[in-house]
Amino acid sequence: MNTALRRLGALFLLLSLLNTGVAMAGAPSKDKRVQRDKACTMVTERQVEKALGGPVAEGVENAVVLTCTYVVGDDPTQRPGGEFATTQLFPSILNTTGTAKKAVQDAHAIDLLAEDDLREVEDVGRRAFFNATRGRLVVLANKKYAFVLNWTTPAVPNTPEGRISKKHEKALIRLAKAVVKRAPK
């Protein structure tokens, strides 16, 4: 009986280790490319925590809208907590534009029509613009890939106190530069 318990314990330990290895293998690393149609491969929980604070819950992927959402902070409904999301803008079945460049142009036009506070961002991919009203950074990484990083705090969007801080804007830009380096070609 004692031997059977040891074997069962060893089997449980082995399965736990294998399960941990599989989970870790699915997480993106600095060296691996972002996987097309897998928004959770854009950034790691550690990158999000370093940029926006923590703790950070594991990203939840929505394969239909190509989004990965991370809950940030002990209480994401209270500042300094919030919600961070990555979205593959192009290619996407939800985006009917023919190119990544057109997808970014369309996103910019929509935000202009909404009269949001927009700024062009230099040195991030081929083109990037920041929507301070909604806490969104839209990036044309290359000819074939565009993405969005979004930081939402309890007061964002559309209130004067909800405008994203310069600190968080810079954090999104740093994250975006890391994604551009690993973007699919």
Give the SSE map.
Blueprint: H1 2-26, H2 45-52, E1 60-62, E2 67-72, E3 82-90, H3 100-113, E4 118-120, E5 127-131, E6 136-142, E7 145-152, H4 166-182
Antiparallel strand pairs: 1-2, 2-3, 3-7, 4-5, 5-6, 6-7
Helix pairs in contact: 2-4
Overview of the molecule:
The chain is α+β, with helices and mostly antiparallel strands and 185 residues long. It has one domain: Protein Transport Mog1p, Chain A, CATH 3.40.1000. 35% of the residues lie in helices and 22% in strands. It has 4 helices and 7 strands; from the N terminus they run H-H-E-E-E-H-E-E-E-E-H. A 7-stranded antiparallel beta sheet has the order 1-2-3-7-6-5-4, with helices on both faces. A hairpin with a 4-residue loop joins strand 1 (60-62) and strand 2 (67-72). Helix 2 runs antiparallel to helix 4. The chain is globular.
